[in-house]
Amino acid sequence: MVKSLATVCISACLLLSLNACTQDTDADKALADTSEQSHTLRIAAAANLSDVLPHIIDSYQADNSSSAQNVSSISDIEVTYASSGKLYAQIKAGAPYDIFLSANQDFPAKLADENSADAINEDNKLTKPFTYTRGQLALYSVTKPLNDFTPASLIDAFTNASFTDDSKISIANPELAPYGASAKAYLQSQKMYDKLSAQKSLIQSENIGQAFQYAHTGSVDYSFVAQSQLVAIKAKPEQFITLLPASYPAILQDGIIVNNTDQAADFTDYLRSKAGQQHFLQAGYLAVQ
């Protein structure tokens, strides 16, 4: 009888131990599943997206929260805003971004080319670059009203009697900034770039943000800026002219998935969807097909 009771106790202990192990395994699995579902999506975004991207993210998460089958794609989203060149350097150094949204096409193309040439890390290749929006170029001034001019007669603003040798125009560095390159091309097409440079009327800023600040503070008379910057501050109609898109090289902004996950793919799909493109239109960009 004593031997039988001992056997029962041992069996019970073994059963409890096995059950505990099973529970631990289930708990570990649940924790892993939760970790997978709550993965933070990390986006490296060009600084010019700081006004529009938060609205796109809010809409994306709101749309996903209403769809039960997309619950796994709802996650915390962290965005780092900086110059495209700086973000490119961080990614090359191993920064754990999932998506890179550049202000131009060059940096995503470089990442794709470099990754293609590198046989290492075959299981986590970058995707091909994609165009997610198109910028608009505008002329901005807080000291010289522009309501008497149209895009077709814009160059008259630089040749009429009110434009003197003391008048200044700012453009972003054409070698580094897409908006600066397009502004230079526009002035060249109007046979004005060399003339303005010769009379030292052109002030070159480091980037489009600085070009905007020069005009916004009245440090220069005019600046070629991004239309999205003017939308963000609700500039008055007499303070700017939006240039005709056909009058300068297209300012295309490309992105690339750095860490090819379902969540990254889902978000970039939304970025290019009709809903995502509507946000870009409202923010002063042009939609892309």
UniProtKB/TrEMBL annotation:
> Where does the secretion signal sit in this chain?
1-22
Which keywords, in A-to-Z order, does the entry hold?
Answer: Metal-binding, Signal
Q: Which Gene3D superfamilies match?
A: Periplasmic binding protein-like II
Q: Name one Pfam family in it.
A: SBP_bac_11
**Keyword Phosphoprotein part of the UniProt annotation:** no
Superkingdom classification of source: Bacteria
SUPFAM superfamilies associated with the record: Periplasmic binding protein-like II (SSF53850)
InterPro entries assigned to the protein according to its UniProt record, in alphabetical order? ModA, ModA/WtpA
Similarity-based family: Belongs to the bacterial solute-binding protein ModA family.
**By its UniProt entry, which NCBIfam families does this protein fall under?**
modA (TIGR01256)
What is the protein's given name?
Answer: Molybdate ABC transporter substrate-binding protein
